[in-house]
Structures are given as C-alpha cells and as structure tokens.
Amino acid sequence: MTKTLGLDVGTKTIGVAVSDALGWTAQGVETIRRRPNHPEEDYARIQELIQNHDISKIVVGLPKNMNGTIGPSGEACQNFAKDIESITGLSVILWDERLTTMAAERTLISADVSRKKRKQVIDKLAASIILQGYLDSQQ
Fold it and tell me: Which domains does the chain have, with CATH numbers?
C-alpha cells in the first residue's frame, strides 16, 4: 500500500506529515524552512519526501476564514497545491484546516512543552492534525 503526505503550508515553513501504509495514522516528519526567493528548493525537498516515503497522494491544509471564505493565505495554499500537483503528477487534496494550529498549540501546551520547543514542532504537528482529519474522513 502507499502513503499520503500531509502539508501545512505557511509563509515561513511547511509542516510535513506522512500516513502509515494502511492510511490509519498520521505522523509528523519534519518542518521545511521556506526560502522565499527559491521555491524550487521547497518543491525539491517535497519530491525527496515523496520518493523516500512511497507517497501516492498529497493533502494540503487549506486555511479558510471562520465564515468559510478563502483569504490571501488560502489563495496562496491553493496556488501551492496547483504547483505541487503539476510538479509531482500526484493528486492533491485541499483539506479545511481551520483551527488546526490552535489545536496543535493546545496539545503542546497540555503536554507541557516549552515555548521554544513548541515553535520547532508546531508546524509538523499541525500537518499531522490536517492529515489525520483527512484519513479519518476516508474510513
């Protein structure tokens, strides 16, 4: 079986999570530091991850406003998803990610993770929450 890649795309970082082969659980993998002037490096790293983890599909978190409309960051994620789909040839699903970063933050606070450490892992945890939400909807 093949796996699904989950991405939490931000302006400074991309949180990355991968599903298990059965599509039941999501695990945070890494946080990619974005280089604004070199987007090809972001895409190259994602392609490496796709090959290393035998990925067959990609889920990208789509930030929506609370009223369901799409703002500038949502449009940026839609464009990123289009780019990654054409670069990889894999199907890309946009997944509503409202409140995932807040949920990730709460999880880390309740686990008593220091502020400095939270900053390092929040994006990949948010990617895990996005991917897990998608996986749960497929069961």
Answer: 3-138 (3.30.420.140)
Neighbouring residues of 87: CB distance < 8 A, sequence distance ≥ 6: 43, 47
Q: What is the pTM of this model?
A: 0.91
Largest CA distance in the chain: 41
Distance CA 77, CA 53 (A): 23
Q: How far apart are CA 41 and CA 30, in angstroms?
A: 15
pLDDT tens string 98-118: 777 777 888 888 888 888 887
The dihedral formed by the CA atoms of 37, 131, 76 and 92, expressed in degrees to the nearest 10: 90
Strands 26-33 and 13-19, sheet pairing: antiparallel
Short-list 94, 95, 93, 117, CA closest to 105: 117
